[in-house]
Amino acid sequence: xxxxxxxxxxxxxxxxxxxxxxxxxxxxxxxxxxxxxxxxxxxxxxxxxxxxxxxxxxxxxxxxxxxxxxxxxxxxxxxxxxxxxxxxxxxxxxxxxxxxxxxxxxxxxxxxxxxxxxxxxxxxxxxxxxxxxxxxxxxxxxxxxxxxxxxxxxxxxxxxxxxxxxxxxxxxxxxxxxxxxxxxxxxxxxxxxxxxxxxxxxxxxxxxxxxxxxxxxxxxxxxxxxxxxxxxxxxxxxxxxxxxxxxxxxxxxxxxxxxxxxxxxxxxxxxxxxxxxxxxxxxxxxxxxxxxxxxxxxxxxxxxxxxxxxxxxxxxxxxxxxxxxxxxxxxxxxxxxxxxxxxxxxxxxxxxxxxxxxxxxxxxxxxxxxxxxxxxxxxxxxxxxxxxxxxxxxxxxxxxxxxxxxxxxxxxxxxxxxxxxxxxxxxxxxxxxxxxxxxxxxxxxxxxxxxxxxxxxxxxxxxxxxxxxxxxxxxxxxxxxxxxxxxxxxxxxxxxxxxxxxxxxxxxxxxxxxxxxxxxxxxxxxxxxxxxxxxxxxxxxxxxxxxxxxxxxxxxxxxxxxxxxxxxxxxxxxxxxxxxxxxxxxxxxxxxxxxxxxxxxxxxxxxxxxxxxxxxxxxxxxxxxxxxxxxxxxxxxxxxxxxxxxxxxxxxxxxxxxxxxxxxxxxxxxxxxxxxxxxxxxxxxxxxxxxxxxxxxxxxxxxxxxxxxxxxxxxxxxxxxxxxxxxxxxxxxxxxxxxxxxxxxxxxxxxxxxxxxxxxxxxxxxxxxxxxxxxxxxx
Length: 779
Known about the structure:
Elements: E1 2-5, E2 8-12, E3 16-22, E4 28-35, E5 91-94, E6 105-113, E7 132-140, E8 145-154, E9 159-168, E10 174-186, E11 191-199, E12 202-211, E13 214-219, E14 233-236, E15 247-253, E16 258-264, E17 270-276, E18 283-285, E19 290-292, E20 295-301, H1 304-320, E21 333-335, H2 337-340, H3 346-359, E22 363-366, H4 394-404, E23 408-413, E24 417-418, H5 423-427, E25 447-448, H6 454-468, E26 473-478, H7 500-518, E27 523-526, H8 536-539, E28 544-546, H9 553-564, E29 572-577, H10 590-597, E30 601-605, H11 613-635, E31 637-640, E32 646-652, E33 658-665, E34 676-677, E35 687-692, E36 696-698, H12 719-727, E37 729-731, E38 736-740, H13 741-745, E39 748-749, E40 771-778
Parallel strand pairs: 21-22, 21-30, 22-23, 23-26, 26-27, 27-28, 28-29, 29-30
Antiparallel strand pairs: 1-2, 2-3, 3-4, 5-10, 6-7, 7-8, 8-9, 9-19, 9-20, 10-17, 10-18, 11-12, 11-14, 13-16, 14-15, 15-20, 16-17, 24-25, 31-32, 32-33, 33-40, 34-39, 35-38, 35-40, 36-37
Helix pairs in contact: 6-7
């Protein structure tokens, strides 16, 4: 709900309030964002208004008529340089006379039912038609510019989104150097700024920075939202925990270079801004033209990080993800990459698919290597015609044989890239991003097609349409395996090269929108060298994203925990792969690899043809369990528990009748027998059955200890040892309790862990990287 009381604007969601008021100087003063307030007249907000009689020393006053106001010491809805505020600006321009001062003051406001769509970018939507939008219109009468601040209130979602629009109503061009999507000023400091950083194969590591002074920036300059710094961030108090304390969550519906800055002023006020990264950005806005920013998403919860995450998860599921797959459970897939890499052919793929079918896989995916002369990553990217030596009957022939097995068929593409050693590059060298006549800094032996050029976008859209129409393709993995360098579009004139990165993203969105609308039944999965482009922009077109090229379970439990702060697990693609792991060479139990992957969109990426009979039986059981519980795991409410050496997750169905929990330890602690699991989100008074899987363990995991029970001596790794291990297994513990949700959430005391003093079927075999998955069903 949006209400206006004179010069005051109050934005209410179900549990939060956002409030602002026009200053006598014309700027918009930010008053409050947090727990819901009950306001029904302008006088109610007077206690929230800062009181100023004299401007602080060594500051500049806005104008001589109001000597009490220095904009440097005010909480503002937007700010600019030149009129006294020296903090992070919302907007930076260069006018035709070379001046860089902007002076935007209130002109009018419009409150509308429903929301406006962004003209060239994706934005959040509302099928229930309950969103209201406030537009604050500001003008800079010195230069004839108009700035619109848009606020969309998703009342039942406890989310407010923001974006801005600059309109040039002057007679001259203006150069835009920066325009943020949102600005939020707090009256105090000492906030913890939480960012999620990393790199390839180690995405989404949580970092907390306590800010009492100075500026901390989280940004991307990779041309993508980046594995280095995800656009989702949090602000919280130092004592905020998973379930208690104030937490603000922010994200950006954008897939390119982004910027989040948190700055504390000399007056201990904290400013947060978010939007397109101003680094190397410049956009020429000619007379009568406008520039629109991406949409920023913000929420607040007094119930800690889990409380904020639950809001964000529901918002992403219901207001970002769209299309046929929005609420549909995803198939269990088998991807060919780690089984074969580039060395694929029809017979090998069919053999792998048959092995997948036998264990319960529903979708077979042919990864890289099927087109042109693509035998390695140095050639043929861009040549999207079938390699008939590998696939004699083409994609359609392979697809039919896969379908005849009872499996759906999927394919890998990388439509944004090209190898220099390709027909496409030879025919159109002007279609790539590179500086003419200058050496190019290469990435993964490929270059980036210039999607700032509409002709390139149209061409590649048509090529991908031909590929997707060539067979009964039900899944597409859309990859993008390098970051930008040497930003330069040969399509743009030299004076507009600062527009290259943003125009690329606009071209990408145009192509994605066309293809997803043309092929609404295809399940598209985004990928960018793993999680290099995991953001709300991509999720506006693709309902899931490959979270990381690192399939190691120990990394994944940490990486998926990082993603879970801002993204629901229903958009996080996760695979069970072989060990030693291909990225870390670490060996983790097959059960743990499944237990972690099951909480995302679960699939497999290993050579089932080479697996042992026991491992195949284990995978068959895993897939059966996952199919039984995947609706809970994908669309239930996700809760984080402990995180550190011990990790805990719980996912609870919306009706709270079913729940799945997981506990994993990183390293064994010697002589520690005790452990407990703390489920969350259960109905307190309802009765639940709590139980785990019946597992058995290979005796080789006990090493030489088998000789303490064996009547004959067994040499480690001997023929006898290997033979016995095929027939003799050790029992795992069974946990089964019936109790109320409140009792279970107080902590389920688990069976004693092995601590070198004995082992039987009531002892928990819980080695390094060990885990358990627990099930809870309401009685």
